[in-house]
Design a protein that fits this description.
The structure is a homodimer. Chain A has about 260 residues and is α/β, with parallel strands linked by helices. Chain A contains 7 helices and 6 strands, in the order βαβααβαβαββαα. Helices cover about 30% and strands about 10% of the residues of chain A. In chain A, helix 1 packs parallel to helix 6.
């Protein structure tokens, strides 16, 4: 199978660099084809702006969504964007690897999402009617592909637990899992998270590699997080709220998991 | 009072541009001093890297946290970073204004946080002991200042409701409110959110301005979100989990609000 690793750390001689090399080798030795988008090495442009189209509006005001749509439809996107979209089309699975900075992905990776997820490519698809609200959340151009986060965090695992001070890791990652990955159609696998990265000795590192290796070996077998498809009947349209009979006692992120 | 507006939208002739101008005028006419960091206009560098220090490591490997600390302590930070830190020192209140892109802040603003929040400035402060775990979450260099988000979103308000498909807006913003603002000491005010930005006519716009104006008039009177201070007794140290007798039935983000 084809695996795209989108990698966002500025220093190759880091824990993240080691885990990236391990991941590529493990996947390759299992027979997968692997491409890496090393965003810092590529000097990836993080800020979405009018220059993302080869025909930026001269006088008209820049509209991030509509200008993205026009450039995508007319094949006039900045080449760096089009290349990443081609990699996504090629991939059967995508891994986003990053250090958790201020409880989310690094800016350079957020800018990859914003620029590569063009209108017409990752959103703005499908009909809006009484029974459907666009091809998203379980449907979309990336449906049938799998995605997984590989995340490192400086804090302790308990700090990210159900009653930990940072908030539960699953809730911190929900905007990425559900909002960035499930939205355009990915099946989202449980994340692989390494905690307390400042205290990793040889023994811990060996254990991390072993567990990560097992997750990579099972990349195409692991059950995805069972989010509810938007157009599958669980949500009222167009309010897009859960129907009263669906998990009636639940609110918040967890209500969107079967 | 002094107010810093950090603004992240690429097009001045946008809804965000109008709301920014309105905000600056309203605050100024109330007698406040206002500075604006217009990140796109400043061509703000989004990606944190070794060049953020005037003395980047030549041979040694780049460590985002430790290199940031060294540059901050030795007054060898990139001047764009030092300038923003000075603005934060000057400010009595900070407003972060941005369109919600993929359920978080735009990359350029995330990169402002990552680079301006140096080790020693916004984190890595205070003692770690049996009763304290650093000056953070209610304590820190920015304590005594207020912060508020001014956010625009394309989706409907119901889509961001307690059972809305995107997840509740308060939970989507928690990593910013609690993790980016409360962490270094800000008192965090309830956000001002504009929904369904694609459908704003003159009447709606007038109503939005009126409500925003009232929020700006009350900027220094509005009660902050009552997050629990880390070192105030509610958390076990060093696990940093809520003590068993504190809101015993609650988990997740909401448990950290009194």
């Amino acid at each position: 199978m084809n695996v795209l690793l989108v990698y966002a750390h500025p220093e190759p001689r880091s824990l993240n660099g080691s885990l990236r090399d391990f991941t590529v080798q493990r996947l390759a030795s299992a027979g997968h084809a692997v491409q890496v988008s090393d965003l810092y090495a590529m000097n990836w442009k993080a800020a979405l702006d009018a220059q993302d189209s080869l025909d930026p509006p001269a006088e008209a005001r820049f509209n991030p969504s509509l200008d993205s749509k026009r450039a995508f439809e007319n094949d006039r996107q900045s080449p760096d964007i089009a290349r990443e979209q081609d990699k996504l089309r090629w991939a059967d699975a995508v891994i986003l690897q990053f250090p958790l900075w201020w409880f989310s992905m690094p800016a350079i990776l957020k800018g990859w999402v914003e620029r590569v997820y063009a209108h017409g490519f990752a959103y703005g698809l499908g009909e809006h009617s009484a029974s459907r609200w666009g091809d998203r959340y379980g449907e979309g151009s990336l449906a049938g592909k799998r995605a997984m986060l590989l995340v490192t965090a400086g804090g302790w695992e308990s700090h990210f637990g159900p009653r930990g001070i940072h908030g539960p890791i699953d809730d911190l990652l929900f905007p990425i899992h559900h909002g960035v990955l499930y939205y355009p159609g990915f099946d989202v696998l449980p994340p692989f998270v390494v905690y307390r990265t400042g205290r990793i000795d040889q023994d811990r590192y060996a254990g991390i590699r072993e567990k990560l290796g097992a997750r990579l070996d099972a990349l195409f077998d692991t059950a995805p997080i069972p989010y509810r498809p938007q157009n599958g009947g669980a949500y009222q349209i167009p309010e897009l709220t859960l129907r009263a009979d669906i998990a009636p006692e639940r609110i918040g992120f967890a209500a969107h998991i079967v």
